[in-house]
Design brief:
660 residues; alpha+beta; Rossmann fold; Dna Ligase, domain 1; D-amino Acid Aminotransferase, Chain A, domain 1; eight-stranded antiparallel sheet
Length: 660
């Protein structure tokens, strides 16, 4: 929409009920409602979108990054209705969207491909036999897949059937097609992709490569351009192979050719994304282009704006995807309100691509991505430093995010060295997701000081209207703190209560005792850019942290990441603990029950699959937390379940329900 406005093109948005107040609705020149929150009833309804285009007299449809962006039928429907589809011809989407077809076309075009089975026989037995012939580990992939949906790594024959069934279900939901292919899984590969562009005049160019190796759940989490360690010779070969791939299907518009690269920089065609990628800004940053402008110009029949020789590579760029998810709970996606959102300032070297604002809700119906933070610098080390600095300034309160995880990742020595691969997070999980440590006493002092100074500010404001004789900051004579004053505070570090004895000193400083240590603390609150900061000294060490107090929680945003410290809630105010009895299987998040795999009386072992849920566009399998017998099944297929709702009640061998 920003590019369209700059080019003098009016934009029309469509939105579901869940997105009525969304940012894209406000940004557009016009916006039309197209149905309920579930995407099958709104964003995936081709006829509704075509109808809006006709009503608004739109000449073209830009399909975005997901939903119908790689749907051959939708591209064909646009053509039939005389509306320009800002993407490739439907034939290219068909040929590249069906992975088995694309592999054959690539092999014929001289592009290297990975060993695998892409045949018509879709029987479980046939797929299993081919997996055995190829040799484990293998990758099961939805033939019409994308975005990590319908994709599973199978490491042994024993788990093949369960993983195949799960991939089929997810593929059916996402693409309405559960056909699968089997590929050899290259261990610790790199995921390197090349941005290509074609026009209606038979021209095609490449805009160099991006490395998207660091992933979780087969979805990218951080991308960079150019790929670290890739030589100019390999870069040229990659680009030329990608152009051959594009020309083989008469490609028009923006596309990405994805390759698997081994440790020796041999590369193999994996798939082609026949759309603009979420991570296209990193390519824009290192080539000085606006790829959306190129899309619009090429869709209007123009030639590619630059020749291959004119496209140059300058500097290094990173994109970090900020997600509403909990890395410590296996990156479980989450939903909820953005109670506080403050971001680094955007400039020529920093881009913040987002669809949300403070106060907005991250919906349970769609992808949990909050934003893309994109940075550029003259070289990789400088770009990495800029990324870390900006991540520290990206502060969110209200739901779990992966920001602290991204900070840990960007600091990891192997990531710094550019030694990236798709197994990076699993290999370095202990360092990237360390066991939670107790909050440092110095941070507890900061939290206590922040609370005291906020209380003082409120007391001062109140005292202007009426003198509060009970406030330690007021006295009958008007002079303050002429005597020592001591109070006991309690802070919560996770589930642990921490006692802090605070002595108010005559000079305006504080002595704080925690366990057997005493800290000399002083500082002030100040505002900057609409946020509150605490500048303080703890035993002579001066620091500056962003301070946010919401409800009974103090949030400190410091150099090392975010710190959360609670204050006790009176028992009469505390809500009943979420979830069912200990040992019950509960919903980890709000979603739809896709499949119930057990019935009353079934005996299960810890780790057995009980229920399959669909939430945040992903399939989640809820497993038994312990050995036991199913006492009650508390959910039905096709129904919604809220977070922390008990789904299956278990009783142990002794018949005691819900206990270990």
């Amino acid at each position: 929409m920003r590019t369209a406005r700059r080019m003098g093109v009016q934009s029309v948005a469509v939105y579901s009920d869940a997105d009525r107040k969304a940012m894209h609705v406000d940004m557009a020149d016009e916006a039309y409602a197209i149905g309920p929150a579930p995407s099958q009833q709104s964003y995936l309804c081709m006829e509704k979108i075509i109808q809006v285009a006709k009503t608004a007299a739109a000449q073209a449809i830009h399909p975005g990054y997901g939903f119908l962006s790689e749907n051959m039928e939708f591209a064909e429907l646009c053509k039939q209705e005389g509306i320009i589809f800002i993407g490739p011809p439907s034939s290219a989407i068909r040929d590249m969207g069906i992975k088995s077809t694309s592999k054959s076309i690539m092999a014929a075009a001289g592009v290297p491909v990975v060993e695998g089975y892409h045949g018509e026989d879709q029987s479980d037995q046939c797929l299993k036999e081919h997996a055995g012939k190829i040799g484990y580990p293998v990758m099961i992939k939805a033939v019409r897949g994308g975005g990590g949906k319908g994709m599973r790594v199978v490491r042994s024959e024993k788990e093949f059937q369960e993983q195949l069934d799960s991939a089929r279900r997810e593929a059916k939901k996402s693409f309405n097609d559960d056909a699968m292919l089997i590929e050899k899984f290259v261990d610790t590969p790199r995921h390197v992709e090349v941005q290509v562009f074609g026009d209606h005049h038979g021209n095609a160019v490449y805009l160099f490569e991006r490395d998207c190796s660091v992933q979780r759940r087969h979805q990218k989490i951080i991308e960079e351009a150019p790929a670290p360690g890739v030589t100019p010779e390999v870069r040229k070969k990659l680009g030329e192979a990608a152009v051959r791939a594009a020309k083989a299907v008469n490609y028009v518009g923006a596309g990405t050719v994805e390759f698997i690269m081994d440790s020796k920089h041999n590369f193999y065609f994996m798939e082609m994304n026949t759309r603009l990628q979420v991570e296209h800004p990193v390519t824009e940053m290192v080539t000085g282009t606006d790829l959306v402008e190129w899309q619009l110009r090429i869709a209007a029949g123009e030639r590619i704006p630059l020749s291959q020789e004119e496209i140059t590579l300058k500097g290094h760029a990173f994109e970090a995807r900020v997600y509403a998810e909990d890395p410590k709970s296996n990156f479980m996606p989450g939903a909820g309100p953005l109670l506080h959102l403050s971001t680094p300032p955007a400039d020529l070297s920093t881009r913040i691509e987002t669809g949300v604002r403070q106060g907005d809700e991250v919906s349970a119906y769609y992808d949990p991505m909050i934003a893309k933070l994109v940075v550029w610098a003259p070289d990789r080390p400088a770009a990495l430093t800029r990324l870390r600095d900006n991540l520290r300034q990206y502060n969110i309160v209200g739901l779990h995010t992966n920001i602290d995880f991204l900070l840990s990742l960007s600091r990891h020595p192997e990531f710094e060295a550019g030694n990236v691969h798709t197994n990076f997070i699993a290999q370095h999980r202990k360092e990237l997701l360390p066991v939670r440590k107790a909050v440092a006493h110095e941070h507890l002092c900061q939290a206590a000081l922040g609370l005291i100074l906020r209380e003082k500010a409120m007391t001062d404001a109140f005292s202007l209207q009426s003198e509060d004789k009970f406030s330690p900051f007021s006295s009958a004579s008007g002079r303050r703190l002429n005597t020592y004053y001591t109070r006991n505070m309690t802070l919560k570090d996770g589930k642990n209560d921490v006692a802090v004895a605070v002595t108010y000193n005559r000079d305006g400083s504080y002595s704080m005792q925690i366990e057997d240590r005493t800290f000399h603390v002083l500082g002030d609150l100040y505002s900057e850019g609409g946020c509150t900061y605490l500048k303080c000294s703890v035993n002579g060490v001066v620091s500056k942290v962003k301070l946010i107090v919401l409800g009974n929680t103090v949030y400190l945003f410091a150099m090392e990441g975010s710190i959360e410290i609670g204050t006790p809630v009176p028992k009469y105010l505390s809500p009943a603990s979420a979830g069912g009895a200990q040992g019950d299987a509960i919903a980890p998040m709000t979603g739809t029950i896709e499949k119930v795999l057990v019935k009353v009386g079934d005996r299960v072992r810890a780790g057995d699959s009980l229920v399959v849920m669909i939430a945040m566009k992903m399939e989640h399998t809820i497993k038994a937390p312990k050995d036991g017998t199913v006492k009650q099944v508390l959910c039905r297929e096709g129904t919604q379940a809220s977070r922390h709702t008990p789904l299956v009640q278990l009783e142990d061998e002794a018949g005691k329900q819900g206990s270990e």
